Amino acid sequence: MNELLPPILAALVISIMGGALSIFVVLKRLAFIGQGISHAAFGGVGIALVLGVHGATTMGAIGQLGIVTVFSILAALWIAALTRTHKGRADTAIGVVLSASMALGFVLFTFAESGHSHDEHGHAPAAHQDEHHLIEEILFGNILNTDWSKASIAIGVAIALLGIVWFIRRRLIFWAFDEPVVDAFGLNSKRITNLFLAILAIAIIMAMQIAGVVLAAAMLVLPGAAALNLSAKLKPVFIYSILIAVGGAALGMFIGFEGSFPIGPTIVLTQSAMYLATLVTKFALGRQ
Amino acid sequence: MPSPTTPAVEINHVSYTYPASGVGTSPMPAIDDVHFTIDQHTKLGILGPNGGGKSTLIKLILGIIKPALGTVRIFGQTPVQARQSGLIGYLPQRIEAECDWPISVEQVVGLGRASHTKPWKRLTSGDHDAINRAIKLVEIQDFANRPIGALSGGELQRVMIARAIAGNPKLLVLDEPTVGVDITGQQRFGQLIDTLYKELDLTVIVVSHDMRAIAAVADRVACLSRTLHFHAAPDGLTPAVLAQVFAHDVAGVFGDIHIDAHLAEGCDDPDHAHQHQHDCGCNDHQAKEGGS
Asked: pLDDT by residue (tens digit) across B116-162?
């Protein structure tokens, strides 16, 4: 049971962070940017692998995390820059970044694997893992890989991001509510956009430990989307979102462990079910 | 605080050209050698056709873009300094508030305190006093606690005016404030701005392509069509000047606020009217939530 403690704790803290950030993601319509960022991370994993940095050792895991984080932040800022030149239309930017990064990731992944198999002296553990299994882990997450060192990083980073968001909450709310005018009110919209996208990129990398490249962004969308069905007031929305995020993660882990389902996807499914429940609640209350 | 004799706005021989926007396009000068000053505690209307450089002039005054030539000073400061110290209040043309935004009227007005508050600090009693005063001045106290999505377009505009004055600005910039609003609505808007002008000792700039919108608010008028054509009291504005500004035959007499169909036809941009008629289509639902 003890080896389950780090992944469970990490998942719960990452969920709290996802709950708080997802309000901004939904209100600012960044859900697809989130998808773009998380898929870009796959390219980052590929680069780390080619550089010989992989997650089999603690130092390797930290190195990989660093490379992937830098790569994802750059992708996020690139999406933001492309969005600005396309006058606010993010879809093309995301389409370009998402597919290019996925393609890069797969090419580098295969390249790294073939390189290792021809290396007679190399005993890199990752090279001997089933390649498909490894890709599957990166795509859909494997929370059971989380040991205390990985969990501490995830928890520390999640708390730091929560702190930053709390610190600048009023500016983020103004920016999310009415970005075109924030400059006229003495703030710097470009700086706020870049800061939030960097926060989002780091948060998605953390969520990837649970849900992988494909599903991580969902943890930064679903709780907020669900909470916004339940209230039109700022504080309750944040509280509901965090409760839904943590509740969904706890319930998802329980169902996953009991039924031997993959944990990340089960958490995302549970949060999706909660979103559907709030949608039904909203319409039921709205029609009274 | 600036001395009472410092002009509120000084535009010194300012030109601005947008870079070419794509392949096959050439740079277009938006504003060419515009030169004028606005004294403190006046209400100036800037009238001009669409594409005449009005938005560019607003961006220059707000310091969002820098002039290619010339200088802009707001109460003797650069526009960036002026907005960062909260001297400028701004009412945008497009008022965007989505129905599902979980934010109350009072919270939106509070956003207008941004330049006065450190982001991490709680709002002080001084902030709350300023917010409450703004709410009372524009008479939105009856729905101050409602979610923003529950409001009509007119109510929403008053909330945005309150947000613009919550930071105690000395200069209020109104960007096409009454497009698509009927004459009674425009006059009510003008009265509200006049109250704020007197109560808060404001300098007001109203920018529009619609003479009625200008007449409802301003006591002086300037005509802008890439260059500044005219700068005087509104009753001195003759059809000949208007024809020059709008490159269009006009027969309207500004002093009587008599609007000629030709002018309206020549300047009204149907898109603007649609943008301004804010109706997010979920008011009934939101009103219910807000009332509960």
From this structure: 888 788 889 999 999 999 999 999 999 999 999 888 888 899 999 99
**Cβ contacts of A192 on chain B, cutoff 8 Å:** none
Chain A positions in Cβ-Cβ contact with residue B59 (cut-off 8 Å): none
Report the C-alpha gap between B139 and B278 in whole angstroms: 20
**CATH code of residue B63:** 3.40.50.300
Q: What is the CATH number of the domain that holds A50?
A: 1.10.3470.10
Interface touch A183/B102, C-beta < 8 Å? no
Question: What is the distance of C-alpha B259 from the center of its chain?
Answer: 21
The whole-number pLDDT of residue A273 equals 97
The residues with which B28 forms a beta bridge, in sequence order, are B18
- Asked if the Cβ–Cβ distance from A183 to B62 is below 8 Å, we say yes
Distance from CA of B256 to the nearest CA of A (A): 34
Q: Which residues of B touch A181 (CB under 8 A)?
A: 90, 92
User: Is B2 inside a domain boundary?
Assistant: no
Q: Which chain B residues touch A232 with a CB distance below 8 Å?
A: 100-102, 147, 149-150, 286, 289-290
Please give the residue range of the domain that contains residue B73: 9-291
In the numeric block, the tokens 């106290």 are attached to: B141
Q: Is residue B3 part of a domain?
A: no
**CB proximity B94 to A under 8 Å:** yes
Q: What percent of chain A has pLDDT over 90?
A: 51
Q: Are B95 and B157 in contact (CB under 8 A)?
A: yes
CA of B97, closest CA in chain A: separation in Å? 7
Tell me what ipTM this predicted complex has: 0.84
- Report the side by side order of strands in the sheet with B9-18: B28-38, B9-18, B69-74
Rounded to the nearest angstrom, the minimum Cα separation between A201 and chain B is: 22
Mean pLDDT of B68-77: 94
Q: In this predicted model, which residue has the larger pLDDT, A158 or A35?
A: A158
Q: B97–A177: do the CB atoms touch at under 8 Å?
A: yes
Q: Residue A203 sits in which domain range? A: 2-286
Helix axes A31-50, A131-140, angle to 10 degrees: 150
Q: Chain A closest CA to B219's CA: distance in Å?
A: 25
**Given a cut of 80, is residue B226 above it in pLDDT?**
yes
Give the count of domains, chain B. 1
Residue B115 Cα, gap to closest chain A Cα (Å): 5
Q: Which amino acid is at A214?
A: V
Residue B4 lies in a domain: no
Answer whether residue B265 shows pLDDT above 50.
no
Contact A220, A207 (CB under 8 A): yes
B128 CB near a chain A CB, below 8 Å?
no
Residue B25 is predicted with a pLDDT of 67
Q: Do the domain assignments include residue B35?
A: yes
Q: Where are the alpha helices (DSSP H) in B47-169?
A: 54-62, 79-84, 105-111, 125-137, 153-165
Confidence label for A111 from pLDDT (cuts 50, 70 and 90): confident
User: Closest partner residue to B83 among A168, A186, A234, by Cβ?
Assistant: A186
Domain total of chain A = 1
Output B182 or A231, whichever has higher pLDDT: A231
pLDDT value of position A135: 81
Of B114, B119, B289, the CB nearest to A185: B114
Q: What's the rounded Cα separation, in Å, for the pair A241 and A247? A: 10
